[in-house]
Amino acid sequence: MIKISKLLSSLKFQRVNRVLHDAGFPTISGQHYLATLSEIVEAKNAKWYLEIGSRSGKSLSKIGCNYIAIDPEFGISNPVFREAEEMHFFQMTSDEFFPGIVFAASRPNLI
């Protein structure tokens, strides 16, 4: 019987970068969505940001306010602990999150 570690070490993995095109979606140029998101937070003077599907924390790392992050399988790989005073991570689906959550009136400008 061959050992799994020996088998895995014998395999060669190659990263393939490819662009997937969907005929239903046009190619869009212009400002990246993360820059737009940061501008919205700043323009609204948002105190809270709610994100569903936070996985790696890439967009959370660009937000300068408190936030609530929801994801069934976090894999944070970005610097999410920045300017926020409060950061709430809920490792669950949005279907599990929303039925039991009531937002306090003291949390205005939730975007």
Question: Notable features of this structure?
Answer:
globular, 111 residues, 3 helices, 20% helix, alpha/beta, three-stranded parallel sheet
Report helical residue fraction: 10-25%
Portion in strands: 5-15%
- Rounded to the nearest angstrom, the distance between the terminal CA atoms is 56 Å
Strand order of the largest sheet: 1-2-3
Low-confidence stretches: none
List the helices and strands and how they pair.
Elements: H1 4-10, H2 33-43, E1 48-52, E2 66-70, E3 87-90, H3 94-97
Parallel strand pairs: 1-2, 2-3
Report on this structure:
By secondary structure, the protein is α/β, with parallel strands linked by helices. The protein contains 3 helices and 3 strands, in the order ααβββα. The chain has helices at 4-10, 33-43, 94-97, and strands at residues 48-52, 66-70, 87-90. The chain has a 3-stranded parallel beta sheet, with no helix packed on it. It is globular. The termini are far apart. The model has no long low-confidence stretch (mean pLDDT 79).
